[in-house]
Specification:
289 residues; 4-stranded antiparallel β-sheet; binds 2-oxoglutaric acid; 9-stranded antiparallel β-sheet; Jelly Rolls; alpha+beta; globular
Length: 289
């Protein structure tokens, strides 16, 4: 069995789980070689970045619009970019676990590859709940994080508030009622937990989990792949980072990894807060507000 009973109990109670070195170093090394190539090519690209209300272009998110000192913060949708990322998102060990956590079926939802810059160039990711960005008809959604390098406290690991997935949805809005991608009310962080792990370690957190990440106090970028998955009966209540089922139902269903096409979404009584974010705006741009 991919998860013990006590691990399942732990996830249900706390809303997160860490599986140390679940992905082999061979796979991690191959991915890292590919990333190096992608970054080198992108860093050489001379094209001026279009200003799209922040700094987003060509699938990459940067820390600045200026071509001088710009640094890559994120590669959007890496699974569309290269087969190696796609294969990782379908890794059997991960999917087996996700299937248990989601209650029997698995649909791929979205993915991104984040680079946390050294703290002199970038900051923390403020506390937030993924649910605030993409609510569904039920909350059987999980986010998977894969450390591509060893990640200790000083590298700025993911941090979670255990048990917070069972509590309320916090405001992610400013006084003007604009969505700002971070919790805007006071929260008690006494119980916060850092999810540290060696390269190949995989973290799992519930979509309503309050989480974020601190500063990277090293001189290296901290790479982290994030994959989102949902139960096939969780229907998106908004147009989010994933495929829009109302536009392309076939493509939407092609994302099912394990399970059947669902025509009757399961509704659960879970609060959501509006307004929701606009589609093309990254968490980095939103949180700067
Ligand atoms: O990259 C990180 O440190 C965390 C990012 C995160 O939580 C997110 O993108 O939702």
């Amino acid at each position: 069995m991919s998860l013990s009973k006590s691990e399942i109990r732990f996830y249900k109670k706390n809303g997160y789980l860490v599986k140390n070195k679940l992905i082999s170093l061979k796979e991690i090394n191959n991915i890292n070689k590919l990333i190096k190539k992608i970054l080198t090519k992108e860093e050489k690209r001379e094209t001026k970045i279009k200003n799209l209300g922040g700094s987003y272009d060509n699938n990459f998110v940067y820390n600045s619009n200026s071509s001088k000192n710009r640094e890559i913060l994120r590669l959007n949708n890496p699974t569309y970019y290269h087969r190696l990322f796609y294969n990782l998102s379908r890794n059997k060990k991960i999917i087996k676990i996700i299937k248990i956590l989601l209650g029997g079926s698995v649909r791929f939802h979205h993915c991104k590859l984040n680079f946390k810059l050294p703290s002199s160039k970038g900051g923390e990711v403020s506390w937030h709940q993924d649910w605030a960005f993409y609510p569904h008809t039920n909350d059987d959604l999980v986010t998977v994080g894969i450390y591509l390098e060893d990640c200790y406290e000083e590298n700025g690991p993911l941090q979670v508030l255990p048990g917070s997935h069972k509590n309320k949805i916090f405001n992610h809005h400013n006084n003007q009622k604009e969505f700002i991608g971070k919790i805007s009310q006071k929260i008690n962080l006494k119980s916060k937990k850092s999810l540290i792990g060696l390269a190949g370690t995989v973290t799992f957190h519930h979509v309503r989990m309050v989480h974020g990440s601190g500063l990277n106090l090293t001189n290296n970028k901290r790479p982290l792949i994030l994959f989102g998955y949902n139960n096939t009966d969780a229907w998106p209540l908004t147009i989010d980072a994933s495929v829009n089922p109302n536009e392309d139902f076939k493509k939407y269903n092609d994302c099912i990894i394990d399970g059947k096409i669902q025509l009757t979404p399961r509704f659960e009584k879970i609060p959501i807060k509006i307004p929701l974010p606009k589609k093309s705006v990254s968490i980095y741009q939103l949180q700067r507000k």
